[in-house]
Amino acid sequence: MERKFSRYLLFVISVFIIALWVDHYQGKWLNNYITHWLKNVVNFFEESDDNPQSKSSGSASNKAAGNTHDRPALIKPNIQPEYVNELHNTTCSNAVITDKQMAERTNKQKNNLIFSWEDDNGVTHFSDTLYGSNGKSQVHEQYRIELKPFELSIVSKKTLPINFKRDITVGIKKIYEIISSYIDKKYIKPVNVNLQFSHSKRAYQAIQHKKAPGLGASQGFYSGKHNLAMVWYKNAEQAKQTALHESAHVINSGLFGSTPRWLNEGLAEYFETVKIMGLAAKISPLDWKNDASVKRISLSTLLNGTNQHWSGKNQSIMYSASHSFVHFLMSTPKGKKLIKNIFQHLAQTRCATSNIKQFFKKYPRGIKGLERDWHNWMQKGKYRTQSF
Fold first, then answer.
1. What is the domain partition of the chain in residue ranges?
2. What is the band of 280 on the pLDDT scale with cuts at 50, 70, 90?
3. What are the Peptidase MA-like domain coordinates in residue numbering (predicted)?
4. Residue 176 vs residues 84, 99, 251, 341: alpha-carbon distances, Å
5. Which is it for strands 228-232 and 220-223: parallel, antiparallel or unpaired?
6. What three-state secondary structure class fits 322?
7. What's the predicted TM-score (pTM) here?
8. For the packed helices 33-50 and 2-25, what is the interaxial angle rounded to 10 degrees?
9. Topology annotation, domain 150-387
């Protein structure tokens, strides 16, 4: 019996050591079902150590989320992100590309011009030198890299799947494009999205403790001070949604500065499941009709919610309600007019005092009419997938 127990103990220790080794090299050259299984074993022990209460609760979702306020399955049927302790920036961030940085990019661009020119025999040539000063040859076209008011940097110590990187790159650019389409060009700011992935919980927590020391359990955060959107990569689908969510915060911060909590979180929730199909982006609604807690919340509570509302027992309701309200505004004629006025005002008054309540008063029948229309929209449940 004692010999059998020793063999069993040796087997468990061996598996754990292999799991630690695989966790370190995961994504570099081992990528198979055994690897994923062993990595899940490591994550289980890591999360159990950080969340002892989850052992007694018997809830798998608590172990994954690391908090006692899990978001209902209605909100996240397949994935349970940990936004419970998400940062909310109330000051201007460094997400905007400065005039100095734009000037540096312009100078670099001028040094990389390519010209096409045609010689006397009608043959077209390409060169980085300007020809044709003798009058017989002409400069027909000037090619250059177009400076766009959006930059995206993706950093990961481990190789990201090609499709994954493509999806988040296109998705983030589409988010910027959609929001910017509601704003006059003269108020659109160039935004720099700095996105970083960590494939280990220990490495992620080390960065979180350094960049956001007051933040609790999370799987993603955005620090306006450092202009860093950080994501803990657990699996491709979870990491993609978290990356889109946090990048939406970066874009909000860059275009609007300090953004009202309901709008900041609502837009992040709204865009995190965006699907790119060719040149179009599709955003699907959730089943708010069957979420009684969201339908009962007053618009005043959502618009004026305190930190206690967003992090207390009503946290999941606030997130779901903000998502629902933003989807309502983005998908109805009167809502689109309202959201455009809000976007325009926030962009125009970026980093300055803003007053968006004035636009709620201008809504047909005021804020009471807005609340009634929103609740009726949820109750009818005739939501449509939006295409951009």
1. 2-50, 102-143, 150-387
2. confident
3. 235-379
4. 25, 19, 6, 17
5. antiparallel
6. helix
7. 0.70
8. 100
9. Neutral Protease; domain 2 (1.10.390)
Residue range 133-153: mean pLDDT, rounded: 52
Residue 72 pLDDT level (bands cut at 50, 70, 90): very low
Q: For residues 210 and 189, give the distance between their C-alpha atoms in angstroms, rounded to a whole number.
A: 28
Q: Are 196 and 187 within 8 A, CB to CB? A: no
Check the CA dihedral 69-71-73-78 and report its sign. Answer: negative
Sequence-ordered list of residues with C-beta below 8 angstroms from that of 101, at least 6 positions apart, any chain: none
Q: Indicate the pLDDT class of residue 60, thresholds 50, 70 and 90.
A: very low
Q: Which residue has the tokens 């006025």?
A: 341
Better-predicted residue by pLDDT, 39 or 304: 304
Residues comprising the chain, all counted: 388
* CA atoms lying within 13 Å on the CB side of residue 237: 5
What strands lie across the sheet with 138-143, from one edge to the other?
124-127, 114-118, 138-143
As given in the structure block, the two tokens for residue 139 are 């400069």
Cβ neighbour number for residue 375 with a 10 Å cutoff: 19
Q: Could you give phi then psi for residue 242, rounded to 5 degrees?
A: -65, -40
**Sheet with strand 150-156: strands edge to edge:** 150-156, 191-198, 228-232, 220-223
Q: Which residues pair with 220 in a beta bridge?
A: 231
Q: How many angstroms separate the CA atoms of 338 and 329, rounded?
A: 7
If one counts every other C-beta atom within 10 angstroms of the C-beta of residue 57, the result is: 12
- What interhelical angle do 333-348 and 366-380 show, nearest 10? 130
